[in-house]
């Protein structure tokens, strides 16, 4: 889909819309909408791209996508293979921050919540133990109706303002100004990179996908992501490497290196530590110790 205004089915008589989805996979293209999206990934995994931010998402995580923030929850390849019976299960809450600010949040008692809502442009992940409180509040919003839903929703927003476990997503708001043509191009680029990261992707190859010269592509990609093409590609690869290491389904780190598109294990080890702050072995050890 183009990165244009994606219309959320928000009834005119509703301030807050809740959607529970059970689908084969997440919507597969970069998109945006004027509504803030609170997303509880009850079941599912893949890569989240939001503005210039990217990381793996896993079951149980909660995210806030800012208004007009282009994003994609890119489900893992296994959700599209047809060989595994996999699905995503999510609860999404949508609200228009402008509409909310003109009405409920205009009350003097709502100053703290209004300040929080006005600062959501780059989005957040709710991390740590406080995500359990947030999930409980989301469930209350989903299970209530009409005035009780509004009360539960205000309570949810209050929890957001008091939690200290908010991890910012994007670090730049420049992507909000992306045009329709640029959005289509960025979607093509992202789709190609996350689908072909296992192979050697040359600058000439990805530039052709973007219909730009190599020099123009480098400037374009940096402008819209604040990252180099190689840096972004390596992030995709390391995210996938982390998934493989945590699964335990590999024969050695050279095997992980090969599966994720690195030309040799030395380069893989270097990029892995630069990206995560840990060597692959330290990363694996930390996970095993965490289970103990």
Automatic annotation (TrEMBL):
Superkingdom to which the source organism belongs: Bacteria
Entry's Gene Ontology molecular function annotations: DNA-binding transcription factor activity; sequence-specific DNA binding
InterPro entries in the cross-refs: Homeodomain-like_sf, HTH_AraC, HTH_AraC-typ_CS, RmlC-like_jellyroll, RmlC_Cupin_sf, Tscrpt_reg_AraC-type_HTH
Phosphoprotein listed as a keyword: no
Record key words, sorted: DNA-binding, Transcription, Transcription regulation
HTH araC/xylS-type domain location: 187-286
Gene3D superfamilies reported for this sequence: Homeodomain-like, Jelly Rolls
PANTHER family the record matches: ARAC-FAMILY TRANSCRIPTIONAL REGULATOR
Protein name stated in the entry: Helix-turn-helix domain-containing protein
Species per Swiss-Prot/TrEMBL record: Dyadobacter luticola
Lineage: Bacteria, Pseudomonadati, Bacteroidota, Cytophagia, Cytophagales
């Amino acid at each position: 889909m183009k990165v244009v205004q994606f219309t959320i089915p928000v009834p005119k008589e509703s301030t807050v819309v809740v959607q529970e989805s059970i689908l084969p996979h997440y919507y597969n293209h970069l998109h945006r909408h004027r509504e803030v999206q609170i997303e509880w990934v009850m079941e599912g995994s893949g890569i989240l791209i939001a503005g210039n931010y990217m990381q793996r998402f896993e079951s149980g995580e909660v995210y806030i996508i800012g208004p007009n923030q282009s994003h994609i929850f890119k489900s893992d390849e296994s959700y599209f293979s047809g060989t595994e019976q996999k699905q995503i299960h999510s609860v999404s809450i949508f609200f228009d921050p402008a509409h909310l600010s003109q009405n409920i949040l205009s009350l003097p008692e709502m100053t703290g919540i209004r300040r929080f809502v006005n600062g959501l442009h780059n989005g957040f992940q709710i991390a740590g133990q406080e995500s359990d409180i947030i999930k409980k509040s989301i469930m209350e919003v989903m299970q209530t109706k009409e005035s009780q839903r509004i009360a539960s929703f205000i309570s949810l927003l209050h929890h957001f303002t008091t939690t200290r476990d908010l991890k910012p997503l994007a670090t730049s708001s420049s992507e909000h100004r992306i045009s329709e043509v640029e959005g289509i191009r960025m979607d093509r680029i992202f789709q190609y990179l996350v689908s072909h990261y296992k192979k050697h992707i040359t600058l000439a190859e990805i530039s052709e996908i973007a219909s730009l010269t190599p020099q123009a592509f480098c400037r374009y990609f940096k402008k819209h992501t604040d990252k180099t093409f190689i840096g972004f590609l390596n992030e995709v690869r390391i995210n996938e490497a982390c998934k493989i290491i945590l699964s335990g389904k590999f024969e050695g780190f050279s095997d992980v290196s090969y599966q994720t598109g690195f030309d040799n294990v030395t380069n893989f080890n270097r990029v892995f530590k630069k990206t995560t702050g840990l060597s692959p072995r330290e990363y694996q050890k930390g996970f095993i110790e965490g289970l103990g």
